[in-house]
Amino acid sequence: MTERIHNFNAGPAALPIQVLERIREELLNFQGTGMSVLEISHRSAVFERALNETVARLRRLMRLPDDYQVLFLQGGASTQFYMVPMNFLSAGDVADYVDTGTWAAKAMKEAKLLGHQVHLAGSSEDRKYSYIPENINFSRDAVYVHLTSNNTIEGTQWPEFPSTGGVPLVVDMSSDALCRPVEVKPFGLIYAGAQKNLGPAGVTLVIIRQDMLDRVKVNLPSMVSYQSHAAKNSMYNTPPVFAVYVVGLVLQWIEETIGGLEAMERINREKAARLYEALDSHNFYRPLVEKKSRSLMNVTFRLPTVDLEKEFVSEALAEGLGGVKGHRSVGGCRVSLYNAVTLEAVRDLTGFMKEFVRRRG
Amino acid sequence: MTERIHNFNAGPAALPIQVLERIREELLNFQGTGMSVLEISHRSAVFERALNETVARLRRLMRLPDDYQVLFLQGGASTQFYMVPMNFLSAGDVADYVDTGTWAAKAMKEAKLLGHQVHLAGSSEDRKYSYIPENINFSRDAVYVHLTSNNTIEGTQWPEFPSTGGVPLVVDMSSDALCRPVEVKPFGLIYAGAQKNLGPAGVTLVIIRQDMLDRVKVNLPSMVSYQSHAAKNSMYNTPPVFAVYVVGLVLQWIEETIGGLEAMERINREKAARLYEALDSHNFYRPLVEKKSRSLMNVTFRLPTVDLEKEFVSEALAEGLGGVKGHRSVGGCRVSLYNAVTLEAVRDLTGFMKEFVRRRG
Q1: Do B201 and A241 touch (CB under 8 A)?
Q2: End-to-end CA distance of chain A, in Å?
Q3: Does the predicted TM-score (pTM) go above 0.90?
Q4: Which of the four pLDDT bands, split at 50, 70 and 90, describes residue A304?
Q5: Which among A79, A114, A239 has the least Cβ separation from residue B201?
Q6: Going edge to edge, which strands form the sheet with A298-302?
Q7: CB-CB: which of B5, B78, B236 is closest to A223?
Q8: Per-residue b/e over B59-80, b at no fewer than 16 CB within 10 Å?
Q9: How far, in Å, CA of B205 to CA of B187, rounded?
Q10: How many inter-chain contacts (A to B, CB under 8 Å) are there?
Q11: Which of A79, A251, B163, B268 is deepest in the core (most CB within 10 A)?
């Protein structure tokens, strides 16, 4: 294709066109350094400023209290799956995990691999992860409670977070960070791979509260310890400079172009409402999750037959609507509505969906 | 500055201008997908092809035998410092380390942190790491021997690798990978952060021999185990798509524009010869390392006074010669001559150096 398409991929995913154009514009000479942002030293004043501005912008957008520190690490959420238990659990400690989908289960598996005691506090596996469980059975003495705020593959999202009676929440927000304002106080640690709502693949946002930093275990490999990264402002080793730079541009776009997280949430709710309405208004598409657990970010549904699903995906692409195929483990279709996906893209998609029913329904 | 400068940074570092221009050209629409390379799915056919082509190109360039696998991971060499001992050492095992500088010492420290038995087989710490040691005292039963092939901060490089009597070499090639052809057979594992000779910060090259893969310990966190990454062709989790893409372009440049590693070495030797000649021909600059241990990649030297060093660095930058300040732990000046640094850049630098001596010497 010679033109850009609407990108509904589940991650890596759409970026705001303004961000892409800005990257292109300054790619050969970053802020008058005479070097590309791909070539500048992470120890240069110009990068340190970009990093610090990005952190400050995130603090403003999320209204982070002073006792939270923002880190940019590598290795994705999958690396957090083992860093979290390695940093916080000692022999005999228990951690609570709630199993709401593929990624939540993987996080739990990694903690178990390390030999830790993991308590399954809740699960929706019984009905194919099609809902967010309500009756969570927390242990009395858990060091933390691990949740996955949005389940990318299944299409569910916690509408609100459960009360844990003071036990710190550790939450994987990879697929819904910054889609809406969140009260961060219950969270001891938030992590998110950037490649959905925040930027390109290759950088992981970690937000950690001081009391959690204080309880990090000693004698961990330096790269595994949150303390090493926090002590050096994410520069314990060479950070992924370019990815951090792009995250900075995305946050700038959220703050200055969109107008902050309340505005972002309004847009996201409108996008999701239009798409779910299109799904519900035809007796043709079959949404896969319970209404009250529906995700704002990943919308999963099936069509009457697998053949129709294939045609739907390929005809959509021909119309410039890309990435609507479901995850191989679930099948069907999945439309991701991350922050950078525009209302116009959703309008074009729902138009196509209506037309598809007319022809094939 | 409105113009690009010559970039002698130690890493992140210069990239070939042809690579930067290509990135810019296709930034908004990668290979007709209608999406930026920053937005494409790592599971897309177009990315899998790019990844496989990059691996194939590396295999050709390095003439890798069939029993070596190429991985692209995250976390830099610092992550390899703990992955290596975690993957290969069990209780009671010994690993040999040779301490030739700051990074070699850090690699050793991380193995010790994990409680492993580390044998210091050689060191040049006695004379400020100004040489590569010759009499290495290998242990009888080491699982591996760890070396740092080029010492970025100090400016030394192994001219050839020591014979270990069959014990696999594990080598950090972060700052000299692909600067010259290397006979890979003695290596059980090679790793290199990309941000010097291979691409941008944010991706780590790992080359691992099958017998090493076979001896990886069980019950490691999935992201720590080389087996997980090898089994999934570097796609166990979302890889740093953009960084891998840029590495692919850099390898293409080495193969097609430069003409392979023999040609790359000739150019690198000429660049280094010109610079060392400029240092040696004036009784003014004081190279910091022994002649036979001199690095092709990082050239370290002092000037008669710290004030002159400061003037040298700032006047060089005013002439469009950036990044010549030494590492804070060594002081003085350091000029990095990575693959993407041109002969023209070195000519301009040596011209400036001559002129600087004329005015200040």
Answers
A1: yes
A2: 29
A3: yes
A4: very high
A5: A239
A6: A286-287, A298-302, A333-336
A7: B78
A8: bebbebeeebbbbbbbbbbbbb
A9: 14
A10: 226
A11: A79
- Among chain B residues, the shortest Cα distance to A234 is held by B75
* DSSP single-letter state for residue B176: T
First to last CA, chain B: 29
Test A39 with B193 for CB contact under 8 angstroms: no
Contacts of B28 in chain A (CB under 8 A): 4, 17, 20-21, 24
Cα→Cα distances A141→A96, A137, B90, Å? 9, 12, 33
From its phi and psi, is residue B265 left (phi > 0), alpha (psi between -120 and 50) or beta?
A: alpha
The whole-angstrom separation of Cα A268 and Cα A179 is 7
Mapping DSSP to helix (H, G, I), strand (E, B) and coil, where does residue A193 land?
strand
Q: Which of A27, A39, A113, A336 to mutate to test the interface with B (most CBs of B within 10 A)?
A: A39
Residues shown for chain B: 361
Among residues A190, A149, A147, A177, the alpha carbon closest in space to that of A268 is found at: A177
Q: Is B172 among the catalytic positions?
A: yes
Which of B20, B76, B77 shows the shortest C-beta gap to A38? B20
Annotated catalytic residue B176: no
Q: Any alpha helices (H) in chain A, and if so which ranges?
A: 17-25, 45-62, 76-88, 102-113, 210-214, 226-231, 241-252, 261-280, 306-318, 343-360
User: Do the chains contact at A38 and B74, CB–CB below 8 Å?
Assistant: no
Tokens at B78, concatenated: 């610092």
Task: Flag if B75 and A78 touch (Cβ within 8 Å).
Answer: no
CB contact under 8 A, A79 and B82: no
Distance CA A82, CA B15 (A): 34
Q: How far apart are CA B286 and CA B302, in angstroms?
A: 5
Strand partners, A119: A96
Contact assignment for B81 to A3 by CB distance below 8 Å: no
H or E element in which residue A188 lies:
strand A187-193
* pLDDT band, residue B361 (cuts 50/70/90): confident
The C-alpha angle B1, B16, B324, rounded to 5 degrees, equals 55
Tell me the ipTM for this assembly. 0.98
Euclidean distance between CA atoms A245 and A48, whole angstroms: 10
> Does B78 sit within 8 Å of A195, measured CB to CB?
no
Say which of A196, A253, A271, A325 is annotated catalytic: A196
Cα A82 to chain centroid distance, Å, stands at 18
Catalytic-residue membership of A66: no
Of B5, B32, B38, the CB nearest to A1: B32
Q: Which of A303, A304, A343 is nearest to A324 (CA)?
A: A303
Q: Which residue of A has its CA nearest to B108?
A: A221
Helices A241-252 and B241-252 meet at what angle, rounded to 10? 130
For the cut 80, the answer to whether the pLDDT of residue B1 exceeds it is no
Using DSSP's 3-state secondary structure scheme, residue A57 falls into helix
Q: Which residues, in sequence order, are CB contacts of B345 under 8 Å at separation 6+? A: B6, B7, B8, B14, B321
User: B18, B29, B41, B217: best mutation site toward chain A, by most A Cβ within 10 Å?
Assistant: B41
| Interchain CB distance below 8 Å, A38 and B219 | no
Active-site option among A96, A99, A158, A172: A172
| d(C-alpha B280, C-alpha B141), whole Å | 43
The tokens for B215 are 């001896």
The amino acid at A41 = S
The set of residues, in sequence order, having a beta carbon less than 8 Å from that of B123 and lying 6+ positions away, is B98, B99, B100, B133
